[in-house]
Write a structure and sequence with these properties.
With about 300 residues, this protein is α/β, with parallel strands linked by helices. Helices cover about 40% and strands about 20% of the residues.
């Protein structure tokens, strides 16, 4: 009895510019895929006409390509899905428009679909162009709240589920005046601690300053609170890994998001990093202030 050969695995990676397509392609390549990015649509059938590959294939499709069209990409997806010798997965990297705009602002790049216009026009144009493709995706990953480490972990979780994974951990600070950040797993309110804002010599500094951090840490309630948060985090990390999570986000909030929450986020990140944990930090209000300053330059 003849056995049918296993279909060749093909991951087609697409999504709006700035959502993480290139990062995802790189991760797939690290996982053993043959990766080709920015491939023109017209070359996809020709690429697959040859002998079957001895390893899975990842193709990045970009709306910037000269022969790109929504209908053309949908036709390619239909044609590939109809081939029994191919195991197709359409991976769509999605992202909220305001986050895409922030990423373009941070990198000072022009949007490829609006090179002579403002980035918001390009983002809206590309989102409309890709909307039908998004509906056809087999796997949708919203990267709005991901940093690069979290995105890498998520792609590895999806396409190499049996490999040993490390939990990507992000620590945030924020102001309650502007509401909770999106996508946070655990939130701690630290407004009960002494506020450096009321000290004239500390008001203009932030929680990354040693003077502010020392002032916050000198509150007698700081140490027991911090130790309990640290112990809780250490207890939960392996549990989240066992549950299959690829990332965990923890946030500290205070009134203005400048002093107490920043100091606690920095302290927790340092303690966990010293224990070998992969940690990233985001100070929402400080980041917003930096971007506002840069936009005036």
């Amino acid at each position: 009895m003849l056995t049918q050969p296993q279909p060749s695995k093909l991951v087609l990676v697409t999504g709006p510019s700035g959502a993480g397509r290139s990062t995802s392609i790189n991760v797939l390549e690290d996982l053993g895929f043959e990766a080709i990015d920015n491939l023109p649509l017209g070359l996809v059938p020709r690429l697959l006409e040859g002998p079957g590959a001895d390893r899975p294939l990842a193709l990045g499709i970009d709306a910037r390509n000269r022969d790109f069209s929504t209908s053309g990409l949908l036709d390619v997806i239909d044609a590939l899905a109809a081939r029994r010798e191919i195991d197709l997965t359409v991976l769509y990297l999605d992202c909220q428009p305001d986050v895409l705009l922030r990423r373009f602002s941070e990198t000072r790049r022009r949007h490829p679909l609006a090179p002579a216009e403002s980035p918001d026009i390009g983002v809206a144009r590309e989102m409309d162009l890709l909307a039908p493709v998004r509906e056809r995706a087999d796997t949708l990953v919203d990267t709005s709240e991901f940093n690069v480490h979290e995105l890498r972990a998520e792609i590895a979780r999806l396409f190499a589920p049996n490999e040993k994974r490390e939990l990507a951990l992000s620590i945030h600070s924020f102001s309650y005046k502007r509401g909770l950040p999106r996508g946070i797993d655990m939130v701690f309110d630290c407004r009960f601690l002494n506020n450096p804002y009321w000290q004239p010599d500390l008001r203009g500094l932030d929680g990354r300053s040693a003077r502010v951090a020392d002032y916050v840490a000198n509150d007698p309630r700081f140490e027991p609170f911090f130790e309990k948060v640290l112990d809780l985090t250490k207890m939960l990390l392996p549990a989240y890994v066992d549950e299959g999570k690829s990332h965990l986000s923890i946030a500290f909030g205070c009134t203005g998001g400048q002093h107490r929450s920043v100091a606690l986020a920095e302290s927790l990140a340092k303690a966990l990093a010293e224990g070998g944990q992969q940690v990233s930090i985001r100070h929402r209000e400080l980041d917003q202030g930096r971007l506002a300053t840069e936009s005036k330059v």
